[in-house]
């Protein structure tokens, strides 16, 4: 269990922060940028949840927990040392990716095939889910960039890739099962 008695520590005042393994890095490092964007995505999910209830809210709560797992994963480098660590770091698993895929398939079965691109919007919930999608996609791009510099858990990138797809399909569900989607009309305002 984590205990946070004091919120400010002053240890970051010089522009550095501690990773999960205790190493100090610049706050603008790619690793911090990647897991910081995952945290941002989690905040957008919290905003979306203001408009949900029932099963969708439960699934979004699970995603929020997964995103905290993902942040913990990304803030802990040293992939090769995991097997020998007394306390192995938390890593996102392929099972979490598979769960998203299953949920996407179930939601998508309710929808008519798309014949146009969709503009973010429609209902308030759909608009929030589209914001979740775009922030998750940015977190994915940053994690992919991090992976070109340092080893990261491949399941982390897969999770983010599926997550943005999950949000896209969930936004369609939130728009009356796609009936109220806002469709792109190419060149409509020329």
UniProtKB/TrEMBL annotation:
Alphabetical UniProt keywords: ATP-binding, Cobalamin biosynthesis, Nucleotide-binding, Transferase
UniProt cross-references to Gene3D superfamilies, sorted A to Z: Cobalamin adenosyltransferase-like
GO molecular function term, any single one: corrinoid adenosyltransferase activity
Keyword flag Methyltransferase: no
Pfam family, one: Cob_adeno_trans
Residues annotated as domain Cobalamin adenosyltransferase-like: 7-173
Catalytic activity as recorded in UniProt: 2 cob(II)alamin + reduced [electron-transfer flavoprotein] + 2 ATP = 2 adenosylcob(III)alamin + 2 triphosphate + oxidized [electron-transfer flavoprotein] + 3 H(+); 2 cob(II)yrinate a,c diamide + reduced [electron-transfer flavoprotein] + 2 ATP = 2 adenosylcob(III)yrinate a,c-diamide + 2 triphosphate + oxidized [electron-transfer flavoprotein] + 3 H(+)
Documented EC number(s): 2.5.1.17
Pathways involved: Cofactor biosynthesis; adenosylcobalamin biosynthesis; adenosylcobalamin from cob(II)yrinate a,c-diamide: step 2/7
Family to which this protein belongs: Belongs to the Cob(I)alamin adenosyltransferase family.
Official protein name in the record: Corrinoid adenosyltransferase
Native source species: Parasulfitobacter algicola
Source taxonomy: Bacteria, Pseudomonadati, Pseudomonadota, Alphaproteobacteria, Rhodobacterales
